[in-house]
Amino acid sequence: MACIGVGSLSVSPSPSQCLLPFTYYYYYHSSLTLSCSRNSRRIGRRFGSVRAESMATDSEKLGIKIERNPPESKLTQFGVRKWPKWGCPPSKFPWTYDTKEICYLLEGKVKVTPDGSSESVEIGAGDLVEFPKGMSCTWDVSVGVDKHYNMG
User: Fold this and answer.
1) Which residues contact 117 (CB under 8 A, 6 or more apart)?
2) How far is CA 77 from the centre of its chain?
3) Pairwise CA distance, residues 121 & 144, whole Å
4) What is the pTM assigned to this prediction?
5) What is the per-residue pLDDT across 61-80, written as a single tens digit (0 to 9) for each?
6) Which of 25, 57, 73, 132 has its CB surrounded by the most CB atoms within 10 Å?
7) Is residue 9 a contact partner of residue 22, using CB atoms and an 8 Å limit?
8) What was the pLDDT predicted at 55?
9) How does DSSP classify residue 73?
């Protein structure tokens, strides 16, 4: 397994192979806790656990708003973990949003195709998604979904 990383932080199969100094690490769709201890004469410090923060990315496509990897502080502010949960296995089905829905995907991968469009929007674990009121679409679930949702 090769080292992976962004900035000056890398993750490798062995903690002794971690690169220093730590600045940040972008891990798609989730947070990651890293442990890497390494003595360095040049730096003269010993690093312990580092909490990796995901970088949020906002986009809107076909009327669907997506924030990828929102910070936990935003999820807490919205009360996401207190919202009801819904899930489904891999499947394909039509859906109409009678009201605006905001959802946070804990697991899964979905292609959402609005009616009348030849384009799809892909959403997955770690995405905070807003569907507008009145949207009719088809959900093509390739990986079973587990999500928190809020209607209205």
Assistant:
1) 62
2) 17
3) 17
4) 0.64
5) 999 999 999 999 999 999 99
6) 25
7) yes
8) 58
9) H
